[in-house]
Amino acid sequence: MQLAVLGLNHKTADISVRECFSFAEEQILAALKYIYADDGIAECAILSTCNRTEMYAVVDELDEGLALMRRYLQRMAGVNMSDTEMETNFYIHSDDDCMEHLFRVSSSLDSLVVGEGQILSQVKKAYALAREAKTTDTVLNTLFHRAIAVGKKVRTETRIAYNAVSVSYAAVEMAKKVLGDLSNAKVLLVGAGQMSELTARHLVENGVQTVFVSNRRYERAAALAEKFNGQAVPFEDFMKSAVEADIVITSTGAPHYIIYTKEVAHLMARRKARPSLFMDIAVPRDVEPEVEAISGVSLFNVDDLEAVVESNLKEREQEAVAAEEIIADELDDLINKFRYLSLRPTVVRLSDKAERIRQREMKRALVKLPDITPEQRKIFENMSHMLVRKLLRDPMIRINEAAGSEKEDYYIKAARDLFKLEIIGEERHEEKSDNRYARQ
Fold this sequence. Notes:
Mean pLDDT: 87
CATH superfamily of the largest domain: Glutamyl-tRNA reductase, N-terminal domain
Number of helices: 17
Order of helices and strands: EHHEEHHEHHHHEHEHEHEHEEHHHHH
Largest sheet: 6 strands, parallel
Strand order of the largest sheet: 7-6-5-8-9-10
Shape: elongated
Helix content: 55-70%
CATH class of the largest domain: Alpha Beta
CATH topology of the largest domain: Beta Polymerase, domain 2
Distance between the termini: 14 Å
């Protein structure tokens, strides 16, 4: 039995393909139960986000299992890809590589933006859906529990999630640096472009209470102001609102400056020395560069913000090295754990059988010794425990040493034959326990 993942992401498939394989929760739940009914797939879970879709599965045989996984994903998406198209857009990882891949995904090392925080919650949700559908068992339960723990560990023990890595988030970082607490700050948007809207949205999420919007086309200003419960301002009057605004975001597309030094100097006099932050994210620029020389004014253009983003990305890349070390250590530990899962049923049966024999023989002996004292009974108990322990010690060592090796099947079969460990009528998944990744 083997562990595998079949998936596509932003690196392997463009948006036109990814959107076909983007599945809603209800669709995943229904599909998981249908897929799980197939004898070739023992466990399965599906992770679907805007940038990736992946099916994790425990399969009886890798090639046949992957063929099933391909067929089910295409059926869910309602597409019929050729083998070449599948190879172009999808990737495959099995066993140890599959585990490492999920660790990297949950740690956001495989994300479009390294360090983004949403993917960990998406991994949690994918696992929760599989649990709800009852399509996981020992292998995927163990894998996803550890992957989620690794994701949390990377975020708490490194600074991979720190610092802004988009212009809009960098603007928030700048605003906090200049103004401190944003809970009472007011924002003026001059221009209704996508970047200025996104920047304003992040500022509002970080405490900004009041938003003014001005645009040459007033109806666009009104539509955008409504999104923030803000106020639309006629374009010819936006400097009046700028007096009230602590943050001014400009993105008009005008071929010349729309805010000049003289106007801002007059504005600052009316603000009575209260600091004012101008974020000029227009190209060409909207704000005359000399504005920055005015006392109390901070001016940042798009190059300033992108420089912050570039610096922060480099820091995240450095933190990713530390994250890789965490993943390597956790992967080694999980591989060792899985290595012994396949032997565990045999070891447990051997230990249980020895304990049953010990207890039976102790009971028979004690019947013949009715006058034995509690202290003497304890001596007999300890002696019998030690006899069993010493007799089983070498066989247990040999069995454990065989874990993951070519001799694994041989030792499992030998132990079962020598100690008569087979149980009549045992469950189907127990019959498969001599495979590499077996259920407990």
